[in-house]
Amino acid sequence: MRERNIFLLHYYIGWILDSTYLRGKKNKSHYSLTNAIETSFGGRFTWKMVKCKQQEGSWECGFLVVRNMFEFVISRQFGFPNNMWNDTTEITGVEIDKLVENIMCRFFAAVFNDKSKN
What is the pTM of this model? Predict the structure, then answer.
């Protein structure tokens, strides 16, 4: 099981992004990391389940982790936590292809100074 957590220590609030939480009807008790964070920081957190893209099978999780991190760094961090994900539809193959193309174009532009793909 892969866990994704974003948290604000000052407010003891955490957000859980899980691409299978709807299918499993999960809550904070399903994640070992929530207890570890609370123990480490000596306090109870308010945990919120984020309405993020869901996966149909078992192989899409890596793409969703990358997608969520990429979106957070590029756009969602600005105005966080008001700028949250709000889409629980299943990710499609087309969306995964676009993600890979977008990230690879950025990678080649940055590493090889190839501006032709931007």
Answer: 0.72
